[in-house]
Amino acid sequence: MNKPIRKAVLPVAGLGTRFLPATKAVPKEMLTIVDRPVLQHVVDEAREAGIEHFVFVTGRNKAVIEDHFDMSYELEDTLTRRGKRKEYEALMADLPAAGAMSFTRQQAPLGLGHAVWCAREIIGDEPFAVLLPDMITMAGRSNNRCLAQCLEAYDRHGGNIIAVEEVLPEETHQYGIVAVGADHGSSFEITGMVEKPKQGTAPSNLIISGRYILQPEIFGILERVEKGAGGEIQLTDGMVQLSKSQAFHGVRFDGRTYDCGSKLGFLTANIAFALDRPDLAPALRAEIEKLVG
Ligand code: UTP
User: Fold this and answer.
1) Which of 64, 70, 214, 269 has its CA 20 to 30 A from that of 36?
2) Whole-model pTM above 0.90?
């Protein structure tokens, strides 16, 4: 019987340099996709998958994230007095339960591996999920978003799970890439991983796309891992070491991921999520036709 996955780490301490100047004072995770911050979409995905506790690894200039997941008395009081019951209830429904969130600090953005390591005391000795909060996912045919699909694979295989997606072969040098072993279709054994391989050397065109289930032994490894690609402590390098003693499986995510840390991904996500909303889709479609037609 696999230990249940109750907690998720959401590293939000990066500087968002690809999105300046928007991210100078506003954390990139708080930019909005339609009317919800990117981070709220990711928390929604984790809650749908059954996550009970959220560990945010934050940094300087990120205090607004804590405020977003707190009560806002003046606002709630005003909504109630003005009879805006629906808006009030929607705000309340978005809040995780009291005590279901922890905030810890990564004082300097030393890399994703270091950010995950900062959550070690709060996670303790149990397997956990990691969700990169600038990647948002939309369900495909199965109606499950990416983390729920990772948890299904974890039920089948146990160990460590990584969601992957296909990119064009010429784009692989920008990402963490996995090598594929025994293939079961929607999931497969991972036989190798490499962060940002030199062009033409990638073992596949499957990228590590931002959702993970990891065993707690990763923390001891991340403590010792050396700086890798980009001078940062890379989660991929820690996972490569863990894979010498533990199984890793990949999940081919049925759905679509948008990298909201890039301008193009962010703009596409806004259009895709708005076209998925019955209250906005018809008018937006007409506007797009005017623009491009
Ligand atoms: P990214 O590399 O996409 O984020 O890391 P970044 O560094 O903010 O972005 P750019 O490249 O400068 O535009 C993926 C996730 O990991 C977090 C980021 O906040 C992001 O959500 N992260 C990254 C940390 O929390 N700490 C780090 O040291 C690095």
Assistant:
1) 214
2) yes
Residue nearest to atom 23 of ligand 1 (CA): 14
Nearest ligand 1 atom to alpha carbon 262 = 13
- Written as six digits, the tokens of 206 are 């499957």
Report which protein residue has its CA nearest ligand 1's atom 15.
132
CB 160 within 8 A of CB 247: yes
Looking at residue 230, what is its pLDDT?
82
Pocket residues: Cβ below 6 A from ligand 1: 11-19, 57, 106, 109-112, 114-115, 132-134, 261
Q: List phi, psi (to 5°) of 273.
A: -70, -35
How many angstroms does the Cα of residue 132 sit away from the middle of ligand 1?
8
For domain 7-292, is the CATH number 2.102.10.10? Answer: no
Q: Cα 68 to chain center, whole Å? A: 18
The torsion defined by the Cα of 271, 276, 278 and 279, in degrees rounded to 10, comes to -40
Asked if 7 contacts 122 with a C-beta cutoff of 8 angstroms, the reply is yes
CA dist list (Å): 169 to 88, 137, 240? 47, 22, 22
Name the residue of 9, 106, 132 to mutate for ligand 1: max ligand atoms within 8 A of Cβ.
132
For residue 1, the model assigns a pLDDT of 83
Q: Facing residues of 195 across strands? A: 176
- Contact assessment for residue 133 and residue 29, using Cβ atoms and an 8 Å cutoff: yes
- Ligand 1 centroid, distance to 15 Cα (angstroms): 6
What is the Cα–Cα distance from 287 to 27, expressed in whole angstroms?
29
Which residue stretches of the chain have pLDDT < 70?
none
Under DSSP, the state recorded for 215 is: -
Beta strands in 20-107 (DSSP E): 32-33, 36-37, 53-58, 101-105
- For residue 111, the CA-to-ligand 1 centroid distance in Å is 7
Ligand 1 atom at minimum distance from 133 CA: 21
